[in-house]
Specification:
2 domains; globular; three-stranded antiparallel sheet; 9 helices; 9 strands; Rossmann fold; about 240 residues; alpha/beta; single chain; about 25% strand
């Protein structure tokens, strides 16, 4: 069964932000193409239920834009996007965190934002806290947490949702080696239960081990999509050539 299907997807962004958009509006009208860029161009992609997909490419290649479109955070400028199933997005881990709330209160808040019911959160509360590894600080306002503690807490909540599609953008790298191993083990368990995994990373070894297929994006265009080992090898050869 197809979980995700994208057909001829384009995404365009304006380079001007905030007050620039107003102050340079005349320039925008006279020469619109100068101020816009395509983050994704003519992308076709189909992902089946239970697949483990990696996404690679240099910074600015469109990786996060693609995840945001799948998550419904932003819409494609052109093209068709079909997503079937409950999507849990671990892209902006800080987005739901409230500094004056305790860690426990933020678990409730983030869980609800991810579609969990209160009863489900309460049932999983101890496991979420244990996974995050911050039990002694759980009733302290998170504004006193370190960045790593906050991110581990948010990531832990996401790992305990009943996701059918799981989107992760380098989020497992928020902790030490032990936390990363625990996170990857949990991701694999969710995948075995049927969740579709889409993982963005610059760590090629993690992608070789934990994905079956990989999409290589280059300036918004799909360079290759296929078996992870083959696509990663081609990408690394290309990167070394570019650097040389």
């Amino acid at each position: 069964m197809s979980r995700i299907a994208l057909s001829r997807v384009y995404k365009k962004y304006c380079r001007l932000q905030g007050s620039q958009y107003i102050t340079q509006s005349l320039s925008l009208l006279r020469n619109p193409e100068k101020h816009w860029f395509w983050s994704l161009k003519n992308l076709d992609l189909e992902i089946s239920a239970g697949q483990r997909i990696g996404i690679i490419g240099a910074n600015g290649s469109g990786k996060t834009t693609l995840l945001r479109i799948i998550a419904g955070v932003t819409n494609a400028t052109h093209g068709s996007v079909r997503v079937k199933g409950r999507v849990v997005s671990l892209l902006d881990l800080f987005s739901g965190m409230q500094g004056d709330f305790t860690g426990r209160e933020n678990i409730y808040l983030n869980g609800i934002l991810l579609g969990m019911r209160r009863r489900e959160i309460e049932k999983k509360m101890d496991s979420i806290i244990d996974f995050a590894g911050i039990s002694e600080f759980i009733d302290m306002p998170v504004k006193h947490y370190s960045t790593g503690m906050m991110m581990r807490l948010a990531f832990s909540v996401g790992m305990h949702t009943e996701a059918e599609i799981l989107l992760i953008d380098e989020a497992w790298s928020v902790g030490d080696d032990e936390f990363q191993r625990k996170s990857l083990s949990r991701i694999e368990a969710l995948n075995k239960d049927g969740a579709t995994l889409i993982l963005v990373s610059h760590d090629m070894e993690i992608l070789r081990q934990h994905t079956t297929d990989t999409l290589w994006l280059n300036k918004g265009v799909s360079e290759a999509f296929g078996a992870s080992s083959s696509v990663i090898t081609s990408y690394l050869k290309y990167s070394h050539t570019e650097q040389s």
